[in-house]
Design goal:
- This protein is mainly β.
- A hairpin with a 5-residue loop joins strand 30 and strand 31 (459-462).
- It contains nine helices and 45 strands.
């Protein structure tokens, strides 16, 4: 079986912005006439079966890296690229076929090509568009582990240097991993690690393919670089539907210009394994003998056209405060979700061979750990403080030292021992340095954190994934709270977004005393019993250890993948005949459904395809919330309304009366049970639970003490 990239016409076209004082408004991309663009480059994959792509247009990459560049192409990929026909060839029918093969020695080979031209750019005052029609490998489940097809660009100055990434800019137009029905789109820029593009992660977003799965047929993936207004932008599309935006206002002018104000070259490849598949999947390397699938880039176009589109500054959604703690979406960016991949999420990292110096104990925030569980003695409770300091992944020692994560920290069992024991009795006082991360508590046994190398050979940490049966920490009773402590103050929350196991409460002492996460008496047992009795939610209860969030129950068969479908259909039907109004800090958006799309006018034009149950539960996909001040806040409010079952019944959102929440049969009753159990009614039951201020979150600009309490079971 093979992977085929059918590129029938690769086009790059440009049209300079009109030199006129009259503003020109360009219609939506899907409606834009071809006459608005000039074709500047095209190529065909029309050749004899078994032949190579045209050497006049394409460079075939071979080996495991560029000469003088990082090993394994800088991503930890497993394969070796070759120019052999069995890996890379035309099929005689307008397709480029790339086949990944594993030989008897376990060695993978595959194919990768890049354009000779490096001058695909948006001129000043113009617009660049690149697009391709692609079908990704039609594989799923364990058989799909490691698949990583990609359609992307690199800045021209990377060629021949190979050490200046990510400053020269990388536009990932399509990435797909592990057979997921998702397209990932990302901008890489600035410095690594960290920087304005949060490297090595980049500024990305993802969504499911509309209409049919990415693997089921061809979809058109596109990117536009718009330099026609003072605020420039990059926009990503799939089948004409925009799902990701990064603008020049998201970073300093120099970083933006270094990434975008010059030529790029295009790349097509099929990688096997590497850091990105590990972060987005489960432990394990690619194992099938053949990588199968077809990528059909019917038209790859680089087009430039004028527009009268502007983007305003970011405004946070209603009730949110900046800087803010939002589970997974901002603070940790999916940290726990990535743990099942065995590599964790590299929030910030460093070269394994060049560890950062150990920091001396610094003045920090006093952290008190209070064990009021009533079930476990101090001697059987362990604390772990892990996260990042903005430059690298770190952990805190019992002495309050901030130390970098290192692969050499793994012991003979293959795992680190970052446990901080509690005092023999009473309150345990620690020091919390300035960092962002999680405070884990483990009861009755230690957690197994594994230090690994990410795709760039840098140290990263695999976090516990208590919702995965095969995770080494599945049998350990554990939970966590999340925080950011920086020069601006302390921002923290308890969380049930992934699961609930150990009742935790937090208290901030400073400008005022604040608490969050306190549960009612007997709440833990009631949470377990209540969910066990709700139709569709009972399988989320795992003995007496934990309750798994419904989103994490989708792939394990514990929760119905189409649970919200009738409620979503009902809402889409309702707003086909009446207006839906959504108010954010940017103003009021008015929406109507036409076909499959809910489109809003107002401060900006934003639209959403009909979401899936997964999108609702993870607040991702069609409901992903970019930090753009327009689409993001509206997506957050829609996601909250669907989880709370208020979208159809309340035509003005957000709904702020909690008495209206969760009143329908098809609601996120997991979140409802968590809120019912809280003394103040606040909890983090899903990622958008901060909409209208119902999350278990507190902050203080002048903190003097932080207390984490294990409350009674």
């Amino acid at each position: 079986m093979s992977m085929r990239w059918r590129t029938r016409a690769v086009l790059c076209a440009a049209a300079a912005a009109l030199a006129t004082a009259t503003a020109l408004t360009v219609p939506a991309v899907a409606d834009r006439p071809e006459a608005a663009f000039e074709t500047v480059w095209s190529t065909e994959f029309d050749g004899a079966a078994g032949s190579a792509p045209s050497a006049d247009d394409w460079i075939t990459d071979t080996g495991t890296g560029y000469p003088g560049g990082p090993p394994n192409w800088g991503t930890g990929e497993k394969q070796t690229y070759t120019d052999r026909p069995e890996n890379l060839q035309l099929d005689g029918a307008g397709h480029l076929k790339i086949t990944a093969l594993k030989d008897g020695n376990g060695t993978w080979t595959s194919g990768r090509i890049e354009t000779r031209r490096t001058d695909f750019a948006a001129p000043e005052g113009g617009k660049l568009r690149i697009e391709a029609s692609i079908k990704v490998p039609d594989v799923s489940g364990d058989a799909a582990l490691g698949y990583w097809p990609a359609f992307w660009t690199l800045g021209a100055d990377f060629r021949g240097n190979y050490q200046n990434w990510p400053g020269i800019g990388e536009f990932d137009i399509l990435e797909n991993v592990n057979g997921a029905n998702k397209v990932w789109a990302t901008l890489h820029c600035g410095v690594n690690p960290g920087g304005p593009c949060n490297e090595t992660q980049g500024l990305g977003n993802s969504r499911e393919c509309p209409g049919s799965a990415c693997q089921a047929g061809f979809h058109t993936y596109a990117l536009e670089l718009d330099r026609t207004s003072a605020t420039e932008s990059l926009k990503w599309y799939v089948d004409g539907q925009q799902f990701h935006t990064v603008s020049s206002s998201d970073m300093d002018a120099t970083t933006w210009a270094n990434a975008t104000h010059h030529g790029h070259f295009l790349l097509l490849n099929l990688a096997m394994g590497g850091g990105f598949p590990r972060r987005r999947g489960r432990p394990g390397d690619p194992h099938r003998r053949h990588a199968a699938g077809r990528l059909d880039a019917r038209r790859q176009r680089c087009r430039i056209g004028p527009a009268a589109v502007t983007h305003g500054p970011y405004h946070p959604p209603p009730t949110r405060k900046e800087p803010r703690m939002i589970t997974r979406r901002t603070l940790l960016g999916g940290l726990a979700a990535s743990a099942a991949a065995g590599a964790g999420l590299t929030l910030a990292s460093r070269a394994v061979g060049a560890p950062a110096p150990v920091r001396a104990k610094a003045a920090g925030l006093p952290l008190e750990i209070v064990n009021n569980s009533g079930e476990f003695q101090n001697s059987s409770v362990y604390v772990y403080i892990v996260g990042n300091d903005g430059t690298q992944q770190v952990r805190v020692t019992p002495e309050g030292e901030l130390k970098p994560v290192a692969v050499s920290d793994n012991g003979s069992d293959g795992f680190t021992d970052y446990a901080i024991p509690l005092a023999a009795s009473g309150t345990t006082t620690l020091t919390l340095p300035k960092m962002s991360g999680r405070i884990y508590t483990a009861l009755g046994g230690k957690l197994k954190f594994k230090a690994v190398e990410d795709g760039n050979g840098k140290a990263a940490l695999a976090y516990p994934a208590g919702w995965v049966d095969s995770d080494p920490n599945f049998g350990v009773l554990h939970d966590c709270a999340e925080f950011t402590y920086n020069d601006g103050g302390m921002y923290c929350n308890t969380t049930m977004v992934d699961m609930f196991s150990v009742p935790l409460a937090i208290k901030l002492t400073g400008a005022k005393d604040q608490t969050a996460g306190l549960l009612k008496d007997g709440a833990r047992a009631k949470i377990f019993s209540d969910l066990a009795g709700i139709e569709g939610f009972g399988d989320l209860v795992v003995d007496d250890k934990r309750v798994i969030a419904p989103g994490h129950g989708l792939d394990s068969g514990r929760f119905a993948k189409d649970y919200f479908a009738p409620a979503i259909d009902e809402a889409w039907s309702a707003y086909a005949g009446k207006d839906l109004k959504v108010t954010t800090n940017a103003g009021t958006f008015t929406g109507r459904v036409s076909g499959d799309k809910l489109s809003f006018t107002g401060p900006a034009s934003v639209s959403f395809s009909k979401p899936s149950t997964r999108d609702v539960l993870f607040c991702d996909g069609t409901l992903a919330a970019p930090n753009d001040g327009t689409t993001g806040p509206v997506a957050a409010i829609l996601g909250a309304a669907l989880n709370r079952a208020t979208l159809t019944s309340h035509a003005e959102q957000p709904t702020t009366d909690p008495a209206a929440f969760y009143q329908q049969k098809l609601a996120n009753h997991y979140a409802k049970v968590m809120h019912d159990a809280a003394q103040d009614g606040k909890a983090y039951g899903f990622a958008f639970d901060d909409v209208a201020g119902f999350a278990s979150y507190i902050e203080d600009g002048a903190p003097s003490r932080f207390t984490l309490t294990l409350t009674p079971f």
